[in-house]
Predict the 3D structure of the following.
Amino acid sequence: MSGPGERPGADDEVAAAREPVQRDARLVTAETGHGAKEEPAPAHERRKLASFVGLFDFGARPQSKAAWFVRAAAVALALFALWRRVDSATKPLLSARPPPAIPTEEIDDYKFRLPERTRREIFAELAAAELAERARAIQANTWNGHLWSREDDRGHYERVAARAAAAKHKVSLSQVYLVLDEGIRERWPGPDGKPLPATTPPLNIRSNSW
């Protein structure tokens, strides 16, 4: 509708002129995408990353086939690693052959597969270690003179000396103890010229600890 003094139909001409401009603006918006609501790229990437990390969340129930596949693969890998570990630990125990028996009879100067000269050398080393430990215990007054405790402590150092003798002479620990037993029974002399005692103090549990 035209106002006073205006040319009739002026409003219609202005509206007609504006319509193409608005139509062109809508067309540009549709083609370029301006004005459309799109998700920001960083948020989209974060969601993808969270979805990927969720595949390895073994504390939650899998929510997709991919998550179930990852869970099954992880369990299979863990079981395989466990089997390899158990197999490597038990196979030597199950497949190892027992060592041959050590003969105890003496044949041509050999006993326990060792000549008498080697057996006496081993016994002399063990006897020297025992005498040194007994002297140290007396000098240091170990265990306040409690004889059974001292003897028990000496047994520890005897095992150390036996292992050293086995390594030195390249024999088994069983052979070393068989030689020690033979020397005590046969009363072979130690470094002081006396045989080692064949008895130990009777069991006497300490009433207190030092």
In short: The radius of gyration is 47 Å. Residues 121-185 form one domain. Residues 127 and 190 are 6 Å apart (CA to CA). The mean pLDDT is 80.
